[in-house]
């Protein structure tokens, strides 16, 4: 194994410190929450000047096998964090990047693309189920409407619902900025296709949202700005859900009618926290998982309210915690041998230092649940995508799964 000492020491600081560098941010939503937090959340927009890149990143969306004849929806639009980033952060000045080996070693191209996995991420599997090609990164596009007709991925690793969540790692595109990028894309479609054709395309497409984990990893759990004194876990979850609700309503005003909202995974079982909290035998950190479950419960209630308030829309909530815990509890049935140790990393549970080189990775990632400190393997992503699609392993989506939603709303 060959890792330079300065690089290793840097990542030791990044992983173990709770101090975040103050980076610019946009104004927070007008919501009822303490003024102290409002001041923290209200700053100026991020500068998106692209940093020097040591090498050209691999394409974020290489063409897979040809999609099925007649896609079930016109397009798939993705917003979120590293769970669904397919290459956005390749173009940003950040340490939250997955554009170096061994990331992507088991992907279709056997090369890194910016996906935080050894292979595919859930939206790759769902795109194929919908009869679509892999969805490309927004920042990797040329601006051609042809390149965006089947969807765009706006997700950015380290991003959160709170603008500054994850900012200690560098630049990212926050959730509210991603929504604005989608709004810009819709306007681009209108200019090229007209409003009626755009409204039809967008309303029949699916918007997939996977966001919120960094608001816990990089904000609440680190008690940034004394947030734990301002909010108990339940109140913090409601604050986050209120922001997501408003952004979904904003998307609804842009013709979006089909939403898939993902809950949070059991990050208390992630190798990093097993290492940080000195888990004795790989048992999950329950105090963290309790907060995740509260967030998911609040989000599920929020989705129920949206379905009530937006009668012409369909919003489904998928409880990733529920699906992931089923995998962990029944790992042998799913074919997993290693449940606590990451395939790639350093330290106990491979949770101390992030995945930096091929020499740090295990031989067979498919036998592991976790790929690195925080992200699951391709094999887990495939199972979770199956559950989102039709609940083939665990019914974790409410009030219906994606296949049922598409069937109810009809094909284009």
Automatic annotation (TrEMBL):
SUPFAM superfamilies on file: SGNH hydrolase (SSF52266)
DNA-binding listed as a keyword: no
Keyword Hydrolase: yes
One Pfam short name: Lipase_GDSL
Sample GO molecular function, one term: hydrolase activity, acting on ester bonds
Region forming the signal peptide: 1-20
Location of region: Disordered: 44-66
GO biological process: lipid catabolic process
InterPro entries in the cross-refs: GDSL, GDSL_Est/Lipase, SGNH_hydro_sf, SGNH_plant_lipase-like
UniProtKB keywords: Hydrolase, Lipid degradation, Lipid metabolism, Signal
Similarity comment: family membership: Belongs to the 'GDSL' lipolytic enzyme family.
Protein name, as recorded: GDSL esterase/lipase At5g08460
Source species of the chain: Punica granatum (Pomegranate)
